User: Fold these one by one.
Assistant:
Number 1:
Amino acid sequence: MSDDDHQSLKAWGRRSYVPATTTRDGDRYVRVSRGMVLSPRRIAGWLALLALFVAVPDIASLSSSIQQRVLHQGVLFGLAAVGLNVLLRHTKLVSFGHAAFFGTGAYTAAVLASQFDVTSMLLLLAAATLVGTLMAGVIGFLSLRHTGLYFSLLTLAFGQLLYAIAQGQSYLGGSDGLPVRPGEANRATLFGVELSADVYSVVVYYLTVLVVVLALFVMWRVVNSPFGNALDAIGQDRTRAQFVGIPVRRYVLAAFVISGIYGGVAGGMYGLVQQHVRPEATLYFLRSGEILFMAILGGFGTLVGPLVGGVVLVFLQDVGRDFTNYFDALTGIVLLLLVFGFPRGIVGSLQSGSRLRAAVSTFSDDPAIVGEWATEAWTSLWAAVGRARRNLRMLVLGVR
Amino acid sequence: MLKATNLKKSFGQLVATDDVDVEFGREPGEMVFIVGPNGAGKTTLVNLLTGLLEPDDGNVVLTRTDEDGETVERDITNMPPHERVKAGVVRSFQVVHVFEEMSVRENVRTAVLSEQDLLGSAFSFSDEHGGVEALVDDLLERFRLDDQQHVVADKLPHGDRKLLDVAMSFALDPDVLLLDEPTSGVSARETDYVMETIVNVSKAEGVATVAIEHDMDLVSEYADRVVALHQGGVLGEGPASILETDDELRRVLLGVGA
């Protein structure tokens, strides 16, 4: 599709508030909602993905190797990563402390449930979101006085501060953490209805699906809005952004708070799912690193990439644990592969215009190209070995 | 009108701006060139006027006529850059500052959205504001960038990048526009094209424009007034003809005469 075609397609998508099922003349495109124009194939793809997402509890009951809990955790950390991605993708700031908001959300739900006996699921979730937002406001206000490395270090420091507090305070359960088991049924209720253990896990799962779909939709609107445009501008040239009239600091703080909201919601949901919150699992700085890794793994240039990255990483870790004691090495290897081979992440590499896509299409045009690739790879490998030998000889024997 | 009085700025021992009094935009569309040798304090002066630097002393006052025809004076000495832009003082940089990953159109759109106070809107699409798109089309045409509107900024030839930078500045509807070397790095063939485009638009819009420029041929051709700086202070000012007649100016700027 040429640029101009793409532009006119976009304009067509913007024109009406009413979702239309009519196709544009000539090309078969469907306007799903205002501003969202998809080809029928993509719609089918999305629907299939959503159906899969919804069917997980059923699939999980069929096979013991697919654990709903693992997927569920992956989705929630992935949701936090979607939030983090506002900073990473648009304002180009790297936060090393995003577990802070995830943990704040989780702990808010836990404290309300165990110390104040709040039983309503929705109330716990709302409170988790609210407190996560406030926390993001405070930490953002203090961290965003700096940019670059110092910003990253400050977010790391604040994250660890919260971790230390959660570890040390007996009110917060210390290193044992707190249960999220309010009321007589020992479980949160939905609209005042007590749920049995089986039903509870399914209900919480579907609540997550609902939250995630809603959160992705909102994020899609935000990043395509003038505000999202302003954040892109700030990320690409901060000085110019100022001299275009953007109150940079205020906007970046807003972006930081938005990313914190996503962390808070995800953390609150996590509390409801796990029914127990520990500092190690929610606030520790390795969690922040993982959330960052998820965004990069899934493709931080895309909207859904971080979510995919979350599911994949948590799944990998779970599988890795079964295979070997060195499962952390597995994530390391994946990260190396990613940086050297697929810097655009999983979703980014599957998009059109990516190197992987290009390679696949050359391959389908002419399968014989594989021979050429192999020769090329061999030549460059041989050259690398040659360089390494020369360097080693110089190190050992000195330059002659 | 932008007026600076007793403006001073030092960096340690170096006095970059030494008690400067200048006025820009005495009449709408006035084209003023700031000239002077390297280190004369030209860029520092522009930085002080636009808020990238804060002066040690002195003040900057912006005078404009409001809708009722009354003259309003605003002291903008310590105003942050983004507020100055909103007040009507806009600049470009010697090294092109544009949003490199956006297309030409998106760059200009960002500036127009800002001028229309729409950047805070989080729940509309950035490309669906009809009025904005019309303004973007108009600017792209005036700056002769419409053929390249879907090209990503960092793939653009240098002369067009300069024009894009200036187009974005014009999109902000300035009263006073300060351009730090709009033709630097532009090939000799293109300098006239770039400067002519800028002057045409600023005359048509009545935007008081101030440009730092080293090319004396361009200055003589396009200047309504020239301000010459030397060692941080104003050495002289007047019509472009002073570059021919003022001996001291000629000695400092061109190294001719005794």
Note: The CA atoms of residues 128 and 134 of chain B lie 11 Å apart.
Number 2:
Amino acid sequence: MSNSKALAHPASSADAAPGDQPGAAGRAHGRGTPPPPGTSSWRSRLYRWDMKASPYAFIAPFFIVFGAFSLVPLLYTAWYSLHNVQLSNLDGQSWAGLQNYENLLSSDFFWNALWNTFTIGVISTVPQLLMAIGLAHLLNYKLRGSTVWRVVMLTPYATSVAAATLVFVLLYSYDGGMINWLLDFVGIDPVNWRESDWGSQFAVSSIVIWRWTGYNALIYLAAMQAIPADLYESAAIDGANRWQQFIHVTIPQLRPTILFTVVVSTIGATQLFGEPLLFGGVSGSKGGSEHQYQTLGLYMYDQGWIIGNLGKASAIAWSMFLILLIVAAINLLISRRLRKSQ
Amino acid sequence: MTASELTLPQTEKKPGRERPRVMGAGKQLHAGPLTYVVLSLFALVSLAPLVWTAIAASRTGQRLAETPPPLWFGGNLFKNMERAWEEAGLGSAMFNTTIVAGAITVSTVVFSTLAGFAFAKLRFRFSNVLLMLTIGTMMVPPQLAVVPLYLWMSDLGWSNQLQTVILPTLVTAFGTFFMRQYLVQALPTELIEAARVDGASSLRVVWHVVFPAARPAMAVLGLLTFVFAWNDFLWPIIALNQENPTVQVALNSLGTGYVPDEAVIMAGALLGTLPLLIAFLLFGKQIVGGIMQGAIKG
């Protein structure tokens, strides 16, 4: 936004550029036209080739990296998911057909992990985004030290999944944990955050909420600042109070941003992995003694690298991808609906 | 913010002392005391776990198992940090992570700027399709790649070497899109044309026109990429182990291994986060700006 001002200067360095281009037919010709053939035809050919090829050369690194480390592996993952690949015997791969998928569909642990991913996803995403909107609204007021407030809200984002989870594990410990100790003050019995079903899922979700609320608040804040002021003015003239302005002006204007954050958070929730892994401690990949918080991401890691069945892990990865595609399609449908109803 | 300020007549009162302007943009209203109270609560929740990490890291493991939990600092901070540095390998891990995150940051910023410039200002066939494709790649979870990558890196004999975690992240879709959005509006097309008229080659244009214009956004992208690379988790813990760890790998083995002392674990978590906290202290404003900027257009 405000950065465009900072950009008035680079002209000076551009002026310096042509200085050492000897003999280029240069100035006599119109804007952007290459030097005419004849003066030096290899040069003009080089120039034309440069104009044509350079855009592709500039985007090539991204597509090479994506191709080599995402696209090709993604296809190979599909291939491996149809094979029997064991970590202990990497050379002894054999064709398995759909067996890995059949095993998955008939495994209670898979459905358990799918369900956990869903419930933890909802518990972590919905309150997070609601709080983020509220927080953004507050940050949108004229504040003393507004930058400081924003940076403070973002500090959890600086904390890695691993560091944050290690700390929360201690905060949530049954005896001597800060949270049970605080609950005791208000007369609530200690909760077994590690073992109980909903307690552990809530604890894992709270780590996600803690790390990402401030980040999403900043995204909403950016969108709020882009809402034209006259919308609020006319709402105020119509007699809308602050709350009504928030509901009838702010929220509808934020709709595309809300959709964007929902999509991003959903993608994040589907892959949830580090928080439950470290929350589980020594046997973290199981997601708790009863697999209470074993997510799909965790299940894949457990099957692939703890149990050592990489074929099955590949099948889990592809199931995750299919689920994401379905979620994306639903999101697309909803956003179309919303656009039509507007 | 600036646009709406201009539309309202500015009185000569000292800023901060005037009563809230009732009419007009909600965004202009001054925060009341309640706003500060709620914001302080949010700030408390944001900062308390970090502060408590430092408190816990300054105690003993024995003390941390007792009720009530410690609320103020003890005297063991440096002893615990030293143990985390030596025993848990945080020292070499931080060295490794600096190399990894540094390499990823430099390469991502340069290549993203090149690609972002091409998408923002150059005309070429399929540019729109390729841009959509680039954005679409952000949807692919890393889990889809880790099994083959792991197998290939083993075949190459690269297991446990730092390049396995550097190479896959040399340039990102996010970075490309971020730079594209910035350059679309920040880089005047006339500047490129002027350089072209003077016969400048594409590389010359990049060096003398694009990089200077992109510098502020490159700095912000660099910060965001460094934070991301420092904290990257899934692929590093698969590709590396405790013999040659990054910070996150070392923290993972602290958390999932049998480590005797909780206070040492906290010291490790604190050490592993410290560089980023310092970065936030120094460049917090720029990081906040970068996230907000990426968001508007995203």
Note: Residues 139 and 173 of chain B are 10 Å apart (CA to CA).
